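Reminder to self: keep the SMILES exactly as supplied, no canonicalising. Ligand is zinc ion.
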Amino acid sequence: MNVISIVQQFGTQDSCISLLEQVKWQGKPYCPYCQSEDVARRIKNNENVGRWNCHNCLSAFKVTSGTIFQGTKIPLPKWFAAIAILLNAKKSVSSCQLARDLDLTQPTAWYMAMRIRKAMQEDGAFLRGIVEADETYIGGKPRGPKTPGQRRESKKAPIIGAVERGGKVKAISAPRVTTKLINHFLRRNIDPRAMLITDQYPGYNEARDWIYHERINHSKEYVRDGGIHTNTIEGFWALVKRAISGQHHHYTLDWADRYIDEASYKYNTRKSETPFADFMVRACGVA
Ligand SMILES: [Zn+2]
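Structure tokens returned for the bound complex:
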């Protein structure tokens, strides 16, 4: 996918609306309130503005209802371009950059990017096979000397994650990494028939109660025979950290999960040949 082809293909409000209608209704528009198909497009000044009337319950509705574009006043071509830019960016994009690229204010660009990231949130399917789990910290090390009256940026956001080898990753941030949290996360995301690989961190001790668990002692070795390593999840941490390093620091910690969602989504769709179309299905709330 390249950004220019999306911008060319969806350069008008009308072309964007047509795509949303196609994704959402597959040629059979219906009323979101009463599900009737007895609906008609409303044309305003000869223009398709994405509004419909229901002849059954007399409601008016828009193709954008229930999508990430609901209620927006920003032209859809800018949304589509923002999605293409975000999907294409290996290290994510700061809201300042997006604002410059699309001639938006920074707060608007930030809001759009956050909505797009929200739609990237992962679903609940279990990770299977060989699964590596690990935890890391984002937000950097404490900076500068701590002097009275000065805020020291020392807040780090812990993340816990697990990845299926050759498959998907799941990760969340947490205020604190505790054994309880680790267990909850692992049980919720990993098939108990999988093989779990972690390092020696004691937080993983309880895993042996319910899953086959191999550990690697990182003070001794990084890879053990039989493919015992956590290099896959560590590779993913590098992606997350790269994505976040380009952002404004004060947004990073409060919105860590959105950046993690973005990095996870890109990782999980890395083999897709139709990333834009795939994302649109999610954006329209039909996936
Ligand atoms: Zn209706």
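Points to follow up:
Residues 150-154 have pLDDT under 50 and may be disordered.
The chain has two domains: 3-119, 130-268.
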